[in-house]
Amino acid sequence: MLKRFHHAFDEVGTDEAGRGCLAGPVTAAAIILPKGFKNTVLNDSKQLSETKRDILRPFLEENAVCFGVAHIQPTEIDKINILNASILAMHKAIDQLTNDLKFIIVDGNRFKPYKEVPYECIIKGDSKYMSIAAASVLAKTYRDAYMARLHEEFPMYNWKKNKGYPTKEHREAIRKYGITPYHRKSFRQLPEELTLKL
Predict the structure, then answer these.
(1) What are the domain boundaries of the chain?
(2) Is 107 assigned to a binding site?
(3) Residue 15 labelled as part of a binding site
(4) How confident is the prediction for the chain on average, in pLDDT?
């Protein structure tokens, strides 16, 4: 059973998706849920199916007090590194919230202060707190939809299915076709890039 955080009713939950991908943006969402918010599907949200996430997205958008979603593109990721890009995406998502911010809870163990708002990092927060679980659903569904659009442009990488993650199929396509402008150049695209050719 997911719980609310103990600090404040107006807590902001934030999370990102796509951190380990070889292609596409890193996407973050931030959300404030209303007092007494309940949803049985979100409650067991450790491993939601794509179908359940897609059903939850409009429900969360309609019921949230406010929410924001932000993408940070590969060129920026390559410039500032993936950790900084993930935190920047969360900050940009929080920027879109219209309510007074009292407290931020962040999935994971790294964050940078956002203005003067107190925050707490929570490992596996998406399996503990309702607002982080909600943010993780929004981040994932928005990013998946974005990758499905990029798939139309470069179908040979099958991003519609692998979403830019380093699957065997994705790596095979990189081997065959090289990389696109949507690939992160600072990431090791193929395992053999580690071996030195002497």
Answers:
(1) 11-145
(2) yes
(3) yes
(4) 91
